[in-house]
Design a protein that fits this description.
The chain has about 400 residues and is α+β, with helices and mostly antiparallel strands. It has ten helices and twelve strands.
Length: about 400
Amino acid sequence: MSQAAAASDKVTMDISDVEWRVGQEVGGGQIIEPCTAMDIRRWAMAMDYANPIHWDDEFAKTSRYGGIIAPQSFAVAIDYGHGCQPACVGHIPGSHLIFGGEEWWHYGPRIRPGDHTTQKRVFRDFKVTETKFAGPTMFSRGDTTHFNQHGVPICKARSTTIRYLAAEAEKRGSLAGSAGRAPTWTPDALAKVDKQRQDWIMSNREGRTPRFNEVPIGYRLPLRVIGPHSLVSFATEYRAFAFNVWGAFKWVAPAGVKDPWVNQDPGWVPGFGFDEEGAKIDPRKRDGLYLGPSRGHVDVPRANKIGMPRAYGYGATMAAWVSDYVAYWAGLDGLVRYFNANFRGPAYEGDVTYFEAEVVDRKEESSWGEPLVSLAVKLSNQDGGILVTAKVDVELPR
């Protein structure tokens, strides 16, 4: 093949609608109503997070909080679009998206029933690189700052999305090779998973907080497991995000911004877009699982169309798992201040996710004004495949 012919066959990504938007504040969906205790319980249930402070009214009333509070991970549940709205900006024809990672900074306020959060979103930056699984691939980042009804900042998230050409990923099929086959679980193996899950729940159900001096470098957190993942568990997770409830949000745009990317089409391949006009009559037409970009999570033929070999879980869910895992160990007086989670691969249908963490650093004094311990967290599947690596800074009392 001549060099000219090879050049003409090279797959390219049209990023002309993306480049000029860097640094711009963007719009998106805004949840209309304050959150409720039921919203918080639903999120805890979907994350398989049995911490009683988030669902057990009697336990919560006797705590220092005097009632149910939300997990720190809950901010994304009452945001729009799994929190990736400002990282998915601009039209890229024939594209799809998976999550690449998330950073979170938590400022201290806890979300309680009756709070009504709002978000400020900014498209931060992007880069395009060649990848084995899809050729030209965009890694883009966006920031979301969450405020409560008093205008007090609760936390900030920096999401990374991986935008790729779906047809190229389907043709290459590299994700199918890396995912392996769906495992077969024997009754004994499932019983072991159930016991590991129960042991983790009982490891700190009372919510005790370790003191800073009790936690040396090298200390390891109790093992946690979630799974086996299934179409039911993936659908349960999706339904805990408030924005996909019919009529739950409205579109908002920042004032004075030219074309602030509120609800435009990012360029989804056929069969993955919303029908915004039809949804005014039949809201299922922008539901996400029935019609929209999330349907591949629970629909295997649709997953195959975007290069995924099986039904698979959500990036925002994996970030929430990391936060919940460390927060449970940190107890009622601890606080996850910061974490940076890199997503290495999805949780596929049939897999079990295993959580491990080790203390790798200690800071007597920190920029937060309190002692911090840093943990290296790893999520892997039953074959040892890495799903997430993360660094987590957690505040502990002296």
